[in-house]
Amino acid sequence: MTEFQEKLRQQHEESMHRELQALLATADKAEAEISRKDFDGFKKLFHRFLQVKGPAVDWAKINRPPEDSIQPYDRIKAKGLPDDIAACLNKLAVVKLNGGLGTSMGCKGPKSLISVRNENTFLDLTVQQIEHLNKAFKADVPLVLMNSFNTDEDTKKILQKYKHHKVKIHTFNQSRYPRINKESLLPIATNIGMGGDNAEAWYPPGHGDVYASFHNSGLLDKLIAEGKEYIFVSNIDNLGATVDLFILNHLMSQPADKRCEFIMEVTDKTRADVKGGTLIQYENHLRLLEIAQVPKAHVDEFKSVTKFKIFNTNNLWISLPAMKRLQQKNSMDLEIIVNPKTLDGGLNVIQLETAVGAAIKSFDNALGVNVPRSRFLPVKTSSDLLLVMSNLYSLDAGSLTMSRMREFPTTPHVKLGSSFTKVQQFLARFESIPDMLELDHLTVSGDVTFGKNVSLKGTVIIIANHGDRIDIPAGAMLENKIVSGNLRILDH
């Protein structure tokens, strides 16, 4: 049987190789060069995908990480800061993962261009944060954006507006991989183009691609030549992911032979984070365990808040020389995430992806740092958007911080129904964002609008059944209330 499977595997690889060559033949010279590099990476991934059967982890070998491998943030903060912060900052570059579209929030174009606060987009806030650092410490921290073929063009147009800001901005593109037909295991693309029938034929292969595409773009070498030693990598939609000077100092103050090459910021799990990846000890290495790698029988155990107490925020600090070394040796073995999709026409395809944090096991002296929850503030839905637009946060030099007026450090739990999913709909339903300083929980469902200066406290549940509509009047104060039925307010 194994001989048969081996032959089948070879056959699949040969067929894939032929198809990719045929696609390359449809490209012009410049395009073929870029696509060839992309396809080399894709073939390695496909090869490993065919070899690995079953879950990527043996559940019995999973152990809790050793005590000293996940440090509490307070211990790192206790070291204080050096006199010359600029010297540390000058060895840092900030990388933002900017490959995603705003489609899940009903927006066209890159997600980073959605306005999140006082007309500022994710990108505006990022540029403001880094510019503030550079000015305050007379430093030179560049911003690097990893775009995808979906976001590159729109992002580059927008970058013109930051020309006079004190931030150098570089961009590079993550790879473009072919989606595979689930049955035939062959690409669905008919040529290298991205228009017409081919629009759905390609995908960006997850943020684990940052290592290869950063290296291929030449930017890795450029930054090393400029004296940069570390990058701080995070998702552009995580508004809590600002440059932390204490973590940076911790990295810079290590003795040369014990240099920590990789820090993953983790934070305590709540019930809302049960799907987040976690750190485990596996075969003597720290390793990231994602829900996609967990055998079905153990998914509930993985989601438990007691066994796996922390999750990965995807805020990572990575050594550039180490990254170069591992890329050159081709020794980063990132677990494959198989992402099944059904296209509009009903065709079942698979995308082979990798996660940036999965590389933690390949770096020396890797460390987890358990950071405050405030460093994890992602905006994935309109419910998240409501929180960051509200008076729960104050904005200072591009950074959001929890308002001092709020008595509890935790954010309220907000669930907005499907009428609020798209940003345009969401904005149309609020004349102004309610006062939420004393809110614990908000659930809104159905056709609901909010007038000006509404204030919400405690637990508030507002439910308009099908066909009903509820207009919360201007100036209303709802504290521990359930509102249901019909409430129409019309101009006289």
TrEMBL record:
Biological process (GO), any one: glycogen biosynthetic process
Domain of life from the UniProt record: Eukaryota
Residues reported to bind substrate: 207
Pathway stated in the Swiss-Prot or TrEMBL entry: Glycan biosynthesis; glycogen biosynthesis
Leading EC class: transferase
Molecular-function GO terms, alphabetical: UTP:glucose-1-phosphate uridylyltransferase activity
Keywords noted in UniProt: Nucleotidyltransferase, Transferase
Record's catalysed reaction(s): alpha-D-glucose 1-phosphate + UTP + H(+) = UDP-alpha-D-glucose + diphosphate
Protein residues bound to UTP: 111, 174, 206, 237, 380
This protein's record includes keyword Cytoplasm: no
EC identifiers of the protein: 2.7.7.9
Annotated family: Belongs to the UDPGP type 1 family.
Subunit (UniProt): Homooctamer.
Function: UTP--glucose-1-phosphate uridylyltransferase catalyzing the conversion of glucose-1-phosphate into UDP-glucose, a crucial precursor for the production of glycogen.
Protein name stated in the entry: UTP--glucose-1-phosphate uridylyltransferase
Organism in which the protein naturally occurs: Seriola dumerili
